[in-house]
Amino acid sequence: MGVECFVTGGTGFIGQHLVAYLSAKGHTVRVLMRRPERLAALREQVDNLGGSGARVFAVAGDLERDNLGLSHADREVLRHARVIFHLGAHFAWGLSVEHSRSVNVEGAKRVALLAAEQKSRLVMIGGYMLKNHEHLQRIGIDPRSPQLTNWPAVYRHVGGYEGSKLEAHFATLEVMSTLGGEITVVHPATVCGHSRTGHIVDGQPLVELIRNLVQGKLTAVPGTAEHWLPLVTVDYLVELVAVCAFDPAMAGQELLALDDQSPNLRALLAEVAKPLGIRSPKHHISLRLLKWLLSIPPVARFLNSKPEALDFIQTTRFDTAALEQFANRHGITKPDIRQALQHTATFVNSCCLAQDKAR
Ligand SMILES: NC(=O)c1ccc[n+]([C@@H]2O[C@H](COP(=O)([O-])OP(=O)(O)OC[C@H]3O[C@@H](n4cnc5c(N)ncnc54)[C@H](OP(=O)(O)O)[C@@H]3O)[C@@H](O)[C@H]2O)c1
């Protein structure tokens, strides 16, 4: 039976797919929108992605505003939401600390407050770096005592986006535990396009990587043969997120959504180069050297990248046993990541890169 859901970030890449999935299952989905006049376009997109646009409704608001900027009437309607999915975030490199905190940290706390007040399950999207314990330790975060973290130092280390995602995670857990709310956190790896259609949205990290490869700006593989960019396809991720929300056993749990079959970075580049008929780099460039080069603004502009993007390329391996158990328990099949990469490259070439040429 369909239930009421509230989604923040429902107009974004992952959000569109989640809204499509939930509406296809018969749920009523209310989406927080800064520009509610775009509802018709969102409904059309949801239909295109296999959902039911007619079950999608706009709630005017903004993560940066007190009480999310909700009208009294919308606030009353949202009281019926059984699940609140929080995906809204400013996802970009080079954000200021002030701005990233305002959207990503304060926004997440506002959503958590709303969920806890009305006893809705909160499903929050974090990020897989929260499951990289060596990384957390290196930048001065002890997940058992996050209150001891020197946040300004963390932001200096990892930049506005990643710093605010890390801070938002612990701040949200704190709000939910203080108010006795139910939360589930899903930590996605870098998100790959849809496993069958390759659908992805311009601006996503993988689109930039493919664009750089096609434009000949990636002539060496960052890191070593051990370095990889852990991935998860958007359709697998969205199914995990939606199923988590209705599983009582997932209350108070965190789930790492990461495909451990993701190839190393060199093989990833070879995979996306294949359907495009282009060469992929064979030689490596050290991450330290590349980071230094990217600290020079004209080089960063030319290479269309930022030092922050390199933090996600790593050698750490992750324990995905809990994910596999969860997926098996619910009969969720993991798509083939290499095929998904090829479909994504084809989609990026025919949509995002074709638009570049038309400009
Ligand atoms: N994509 C990845 O590889 C990846 C990996 C790990 C974690 N994540 C996390 O997954 C979530 C969704 O990511 P995504 O890739 O789907 O991002 P996205 O495509 O950039 O979408 C961001 C969404 O947040 C909304 N938003 C931004 N600022 C807002 C504000 N002030 N008030 C209300 N809504 C606001 C945007 O709405 P507008 O339409 O109004 O701009 C959009 O719907 C984020 O929390 C991100 O950190 C993503």
TrEMBL record:
Matching InterPro entries: FAR_NAD-bd, NAD(P)-dependent_oxidoreduct
Protein name according to UniProt: SDR family oxidoreductase
Thioester reductase (TE) domain span: 7-240
Coiled coil ranges: none
Superkingdom of this protein's organism: Bacteria
A Pfam family this chain is assigned to: NAD_binding_4
PANTHER family listed in its UniProt record: NAD(P)-BINDING DOMAIN-CONTAINING PROTEIN-RELATED (PTHR48079:SF6), PROTEIN YEEZ (PTHR48079)
